[in-house]
Amino acid sequence: MQNTLMSSDNGGAAPALPRLERQRLHDTVVEHLQNLIIEGVLAPGMKLNEREVCERLGISRTPLREAMKVLASEGLIDIEPNRGAFVSKMTDTEIWEAFEMMSGLEALSGELAAERISPAEIAVIKELHEAMIVCRAQNDLPGYYSRNQTIHNKINEAARNSVLRQIYLSINRRLLALRFKSNFRESKWDRAIHEHEEMIEALETRDGKRLAGILRQHLLDKRDSVMADLREAAAKAAAAKE
């Protein structure tokens, strides 16, 4: 049976989705659905039933369909004629190659940012890092992840390269859900915090080569962690069928 928004592995109960305000509805719907995909509420391969999504979010079909077009252009959902919309599901090869590319983009961002970032921007990144540590202490994964990703985003912005920025955003959107899931183990939170401390130190000393190396390895380690989790999940699924 196909997995849809109204079904789940824990007895068919639908995920609880808060209703949306009417202000800036288009952007709100896009952002809300993005977050649901990133946090795994809408899992890869899940079918999006328009009527059910609209009822649960308290919106009409027009803003939902507009939002779905945006998500499709970002590679987060697939819209198939006569079948509907599904949360995109990347193959293992696509995941491997995307992380490989992302490691290079992060490294280049770091090298350029070390040259071009302002003291005020470094201060913002340090504040985000401190907030991330607080989230870690409170076991607040969404808050931790949001600040983690904002730090990487700020480094990319500080590179001051519009072409790099566009490519970075395009590829990173497809990896956000996987990067979020890879943080479920607390040991990984602590290692990431240490690596972010090293990133900040490299920024402050304007050591672009060091920062590039840290960021590249950070993403390659993330890739390896994601692939290991996927293999483990596949093994469990195969064992359950036996």
UniProtKB/TrEMBL annotation:
Pfam families: FCD (PF07729), GntR (PF00392). Residues 23-90 form the HTH gntR-type domain. This is GntR family transcriptional regulator. GO terms for molecular function: DNA binding; DNA-binding transcription factor activity. The keyword Transmembrane does not apply. It comes from the Bacteria. Keywords: DNA-binding, Transcription, Transcription regulation. InterPro entries: GntR_C, TF_FadR/GntR_C, Tscrpt_reg_HTH_GntR, WH-like_DNA-bd_sf, WH_DNA-bd_sf. The lineage of its organism: Bacteria, Pseudomonadati, Pseudomonadota, Betaproteobacteria, Burkholderiales. PROSITE patterns: HTH_GNTR (PS50949).
